[in-house]
């Protein structure tokens, strides 16, 4: 049930930096990072029937076995077998790594390890896509962009003409804004502590900007005043617990829905008054935008091919593989939404 992929393009996500800096749950080294990528199937292992050499694919950090209760449910994408595991550095089949140097194992990262010219991935974590799709563009769909886009389109589900607040205007938040634009929202309010992000955010449909530091009251109160009682939908993309609470409390009573995307610190606690719940404000969470990797990602690629979804504006830099450290520098400086890395150079 394993597939060997030739990676042609990969991109850097903040999660790679987070675990490279050993801020993740269990540091595990030596390890090959990378989990946003596009490539071609080089060979397939025993039991693989729906992929063959030459197929164009996106490897994904989470999977879809198609057999468990989650995979059979139309409401979930949290596969029992292949759900993301940041601690495991080996393959499921035999508990061993497929990478080594001088006889010593090099560990996998979230089942993908795409900062390598070749990688081995479980077939359930590989989405077969339209071979006409440019891999240097659609490779960014295998993590953050799909997460933000799906949080809006699949979970928040704003109606045409609705008001939407986006908390955090990094790549995931801008993808959430892009989803609101595609859904026909009339007002998209971007919330961020960095006012320099607003001009860039306009490209993704953001119409107004709020910096919480500019106000002497909680940002949820500011948004309620701007919108006559609150927004119809909000999407939180920072992982900051206070932003999560604000995103929930800023939605309108009676019909407002807040969606949490950002991952909080392990000791955080979400606190709000129960009357917010009784007043029919809805709180939801999402994982990978509620997309099932194998079933749904090919359809997201088609949104790009049909020009519904614009990916070029997410890609701010491109470097050859030999200069991958530049991608880390851009990310750490805050200069990059997505840096695409060409593996052939």
From TrEMBL:
Compartments where found: Cytoplasm
Gene3D superfamilies: Medium-chain alcohol dehydrogenases, catalytic domain (3.90.180.10), NAD(P)-binding Rossmann-like Domain (3.40.50.720)
Protein known as: alcohol dehydrogenase
Cofactor(s) annotated in UniProt: Zn(2+)
Sequence ranges assigned to domain Alcohol dehydrogenase-like C-terminal in this UniProt record: 171-301
A Pfam family the protein falls into: ADH_zinc_N
Domain (Alcohol dehydrogenase-like N-terminal): residue spans on this chain: 2-129
One of the protein's GO biological processes: formaldehyde catabolic process
PANTHER family on file: ALCOHOL DEHYDROGENASE, ALCOHOL DEHYDROGENASE 1
One GO MF term: S-(hydroxymethyl)glutathione dehydrogenase [NAD(P)+] activity
PROSITE patterns named in the record: ADH_ZINC
InterPro entries: ADH-like_C, ADH-like_N, ADH_Zn_CS, GroES-like_sf, NAD(P)-bd_dom_sf
Keywords: Cytoplasm, Metal-binding, NAD, Oxidoreductase, Zinc
One of the record's GO cellular component terms: cytosol
Source organism (scientific name): Herrania umbratica
Subunit details: Homodimer.
């Amino acid at each position: 049930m394993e597939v060997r992929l030739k990676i042609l393009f990969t991109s850097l996500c903040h999660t790679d930096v987070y675990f490279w800096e050993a801020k993740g749950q269990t540091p595990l080294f030596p390890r090959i990072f990378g989990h946003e990528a596009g490539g071609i199937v080089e060979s397939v292992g025993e039991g693989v029937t729906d992929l063959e050499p030459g197929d164009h694919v996106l490897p994904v950090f989470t999977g879809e076995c198609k057999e468990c209760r989650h995979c059979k449910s139309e409401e979930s994408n949290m596969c029992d077998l292949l759900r993301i595991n940041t601690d495991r550095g080996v393959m499921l089949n035999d508990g061993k790594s497929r990478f080594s140097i001088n006889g010593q194992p090099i560990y996998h990262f979230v089942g993908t390890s795409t900062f390598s010219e070749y990688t081995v991935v479980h077939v359930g974590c590989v989405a077969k896509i339209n071979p006409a799709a440019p891999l240097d563009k659609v490779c960014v769909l295998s993590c953050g962009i799909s997460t933000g886009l799906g949080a809006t389109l699949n979970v928040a589900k704003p109606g045409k003409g609705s008001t939407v607040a986006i908390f955090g205007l990094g790549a995931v938040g801008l993808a959430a804004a892009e989803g609101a634009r595609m859904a026909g929202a009339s007002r998209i309010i971007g919330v961020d502590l960095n006012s320099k992000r607003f001009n860039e955010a306009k490209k993704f449909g953001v119409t107004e900007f709020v910096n919480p530091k500019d106000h002497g009251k909680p940002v949820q109160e500011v948004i309620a005043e701007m919108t006559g009682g609150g927004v119809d939908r909000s999407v939180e993309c920072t992982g900051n617990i206070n932003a999560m609470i604000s995103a929930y409390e800023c939605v309108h009573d009676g019909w407002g829905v807040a969606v949490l995307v950002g991952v909080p610190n392990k000791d955080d606690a979400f606190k709000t008054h129960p009357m917010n719940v009784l007043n029919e404000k809805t709180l939801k969470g999402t994982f990978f935008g509620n997309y099932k990797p194998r079933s749904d990602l090919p359809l997201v690629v088609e949104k790009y091919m049909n020009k519904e979804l614009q990916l070029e504006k997410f890609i701010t830099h491109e470097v050859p593989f030999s200069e991958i450290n530049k991608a880390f520098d851009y990310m750490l400086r805050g200069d990059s939404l997505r840096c695409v890395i060409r593996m052939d150079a």
